[in-house]
Amino acid sequence: MKHEWRKQQKNLYISGQKPELITVPEQKFLMIKGNRNPNSEDFSNRIEVLYSLSYAIRMMPKQGYTPEGYFEYTVYPLEGLWDLTEKGRKLDTLDKDELLYTIMIRQPDFVTKEIVDRAFENVRKKKPNPLLDEVSFDTIKDGLSVQILHMGPYDDEPRSFKKMKEFIEENQLQIVTLIHREIYLSDARKVEPDKLKTVLRYNVKRI
């Protein structure tokens, strides 16, 4: 049976429009860093290289190599860790040119560095991309987190962040870092802005 993250891991991805407290386990990611406005060609190119590698891993059995522990699965959604430069933090309004980010795609647990190296080789042969040199493979453990499903344009996210911060205060929690995570359940190229679904998440601790 094909592993569908939307069904088998609902608690991590199919959140409600009310804040909730969850524990996120250690996960493996292909990731690439960037900065400035995400409405740029550079941002799109960084997304593209992550998907090229992710699909190279998923399609390995069709290329004649089946990694140990492999199972059929749906490629995980794009995620992003978002921060601001020192200058950006001091501004009263968001300047997207002051954004710092790491975008990433989760990989199944069977994926190892050796498998990732093989994916890099495949992509370099079929679709060379200078950004491949900037992609890394690592694990992240979010642990205790507060998340919410944001419905609507990305620019409207502050209203969802406000709900999260109220929930955090009411439940004697504290935000660990101002860097927040976004998980994109919709393709912004195909979905109207008011129908976009994005999971927003803060790392928290109890106080």
UniProtKB/TrEMBL annotation:
UniProt-listed SUPFAM superfamilies: Probable bacterial effector-binding domain (SSF55136)
What is the recorded name of this protein?
A: GyrI-like small molecule binding domain-containing protein
* Residue span, GyrI-like small molecule binding domain: 18-198
Query: From which organism does this entry originate?
Result: Serpentinicella alkaliphila
